[in-house]
Amino acid sequence: MLVPLLIIVGVLSYYQLLYKSERVDSGIAKLETIFDKHRNIVTSVRFSPGDSLIVTSSVDSTIKIWKRASGEILKEIKQASGIAYMDLSSDGNYVVTGSYDSTVRLWRIADGLLKKEFKGHGGTVWTVAFSNDGKKIASGGNDGLVNIWDVETGNLLHKLPGHKRIVWSVKFNPDGTKLASSSFDFSIKLWNVDDGKLVWDNREHKETVVDIAFSLDSKLLASTSDDKTIKLWNVAEQKLIRTMKVAEHVQAVAFSPDDKRLMTGGRDKPMIGEFLQEIFGNSKFNPGVSARLWEVETGKS
Predict the structure, then answer these.
(1) pTM score, two decimals?
(2) Which of 203, 178, 169 is nearest to 84 (CA)?
(3) Residues 25-54: b if buried by 16+ CB within 10 A, e if exposed
(4) Higher-confidence residue: 72 or 268?
(5) How far apart are CA 107 and CA 62, in angstroms?
(6) Helices (H), the chain
(7) Residues 174-183: pLDDT tens digits?
(8) Residue scoring higher pLDDT (281 or 140)
(9) Exposed, middle or buried: residue 275 (CB in 10 Å: 0-12, 13-18, 19+)?
(10) Which of 77, 112, 125, 265 is the right S-S partner for 141, CB 3.0 to 4.6 Å?
(11) Rounded distance, CA 136 to CA 236, Å?
(12) Over pLDDT 70: what percentage of the chain?
């Protein structure tokens, strides 16, 4: 019994105290402001047009609108249920939330008015997205369905079955003709928005595909997965361009406005280290890596 116990203690000590993910620090980014007024997990963050404001959502059931430069809270919108995800319309006037009570909600930022509720999911709505023209909302969640809604009427335009498990992310391409979705079933699916037809069923990831993002020119799709990879895809050819590997579970991705860089974020350490963080908390002596910035053309971080 002693030898196995010593081995377990040794492994746990290594991941808590000594293991360090590979890091790159080119000095390109620095900490500017800390926004720390939410009382629970922050589930999404968006910049307003012009970047003067930041909009955040949280499991604490609130949306907060902050001054980016100072961190001052200008407005808080509170709803009845925890917010699993949020998106901001391209004009910066509305937010849409996916919630733990199975409901999609549309809020007007100026006065915090609830404009519409969209009901039709069974279980938590984990992801929501506006089309760029603000006329459609997509949602996905525990029921494995992808729904597309008409913002003006509140009508359900398409209910898209196909995923076998939880849908974690939905994203419209910039011109609003396609919708991508990713799932706990390890797949990425690409749909026609007009007719709801499935046009690409991508199953090349080995674990849950947690997030996806289109490039601003619509040519590329990035995906991040619990298989510890970031993949870049050519959308028109439905072909893998590049795979970037990391030690962490990668759970978020976004392109820069010029499509030259890719930002990814995730859990700070490999699985064992992540488990220890849950017990012992974050280590100042040995912190993990929470975000990486990549060159799209080369795949280098």
Answers:
(1) 0.89
(2) 169
(3) eeeeeeeeeebeeeeeebbbebebeeeebb
(4) 72
(5) 12
(6) 2-13, 271-280
(7) 999 999 999 9
(8) 140
(9) middle
(10) 125
(11) 23
(12) 86
